[in-house]
Here is the input.
Amino acid sequence: SAPSPSVTPSPLCKPRRLYISFSDVGWENWIIAPQGYLANYCGGECPFPLAAELNSTNHAVLQTMVHSLDPRGTPQPCCVPVRLSPISILYYDNSDNVVLRHYEDMVVDECGCR
Amino acid sequence: SPVLAAGLSRQESSLLQSLGLSAKPSPKNPAPVPPVLRRMFQRREALPRPHKDRDPCRVEELSVPGDIVRVFADQGRFLPEGQPQGQLCLRRLLFFNLSVLEEGERLTMARLELQFQHNSYPAPSPGQVLELRLYRVSPRGLPQPRPGRRPLLERSFVRLHKSLPLDLSAALKTPGRNLALLLEISASGRTGSLRSLCASSDSFVATSLLVVTLGRQCRAGRSRR
Here is the structure.
């Protein structure tokens, strides 16, 4: 059996940095501002025992326990956004009017095991 | 690959729709960004994140409910004075294409902004006044001045400021898909030639309409709340 890969502690579930540049997605000609923004994403493990700060539900705690007994049969809970915040975007609409609009759930502030 | 491209464009169009856009905008001749919107955007950017205590369905800067602020450019035209007597300085049909307003958006503010080249002060002779009248007209017909027709809004000015905001929120509760207004500025005063009386309004530059609405996401949220 191949030697187990050097086990580094798998990083826990938490927000990870993700900067979205609107020119990367080809939207720079109609979005006036911002040019991009820090959207972040959730990444990491939800291992047994679920630490309190992982903002998890009772269901996730139980699922983790079952996963530890039967890893093949039951997956670990998922690391997902549990608190997001809005941003405002200044852009040209389909009739070339200038619009300032508020968009909900655009930035990941907090992650949790669910 | 074409499959990947098709998938991406499908994803993009569904995201654009959730952003309230029917397709990816491609501004042909983008208008300059109105300073009022630029200032509002910069003020929001400066707020500490995350905006815990901020009501996302309220435009704090204008103290009205709303999550969408648009500025519509005037697509109208000047009209011949057409008034045989009196001292009409300026007569203009204002036309705003409001068809982008989505089903279910509720208008919470409408502010007409008249821009002049500079602050202007008529010659200081007593009794000189500029009168401004605004009528709602049909987008189709050429508006004929009819005596006794009630204006939507009537104001008198001794001086014209560079930027003149006129609140039309009450008058435009249901703006419809197009909005046509007849703007008349006339001068009255015991002395002075008509041209000198009208000098102030001759510096008229442009008009725009600032509209604040409550979009679906806010209206759903509010009714839930």
Summary: The mean pLDDT of chain B is 80.
